[in-house]
Amino acid sequence: MIQLATFLFISGTEITFILFIVVMVFGADKIPDIARGLGKGMRTLKNATNDIKHEITKSAKDQGIDTDIVKDVNKEISKVKDNLDDFTGSVRRKL
């Protein structure tokens, strides 16, 4: 896996420049209101997503569909990820 995470392929200076432009356009007093609105929107989206997941799971259980397979698949995926990390770690150290 890539050790250095990039944020949308934007460097620190580009982020600083974007923040400078945002402050110039909206003003320093409006930025907390904008951030608060974005936070509320993200929270609403998260709650809606959780509600949809809950309804799908509830409906599947009502219909008698076995939902435990998802947990088994996630466990297997985690095992494969761990094995892959162990392998790439040893390869990375040898290079």
Show unreliable segments: none
Helix content: over 70%
Structural class: mainly alpha
Tell how many strands the DSSP assignment holds: 0
How many helices? The count is 3
Task: Characterize the main sheet.
Answer: none
Distance between the termini: 15 Å
> What does the radius of gyration come to?
22 Å
Strand content: under 5%
Give helix and strand order, one letter per element, not per position.
HHH
Number of domains: 2
Q: Give the overall shape.
A: flat
Round the mean pLDDT to the nearest integer and report it: 82
Describe the structure.
The protein is an all-alpha fold. The chain folds into 2 domains: 1-64, no CATH class; 65-95. Helices cover 79% and strands 0% of the residues. It contains 3 helices and no strands. The protein has helices at 12-26, 31-63, 68-94. The longest helix has 33 residues, at 31-63. The radius of gyration is 22 Å and the shape is flat. The two termini are 15 Å apart. The relative contact order is 0.05.
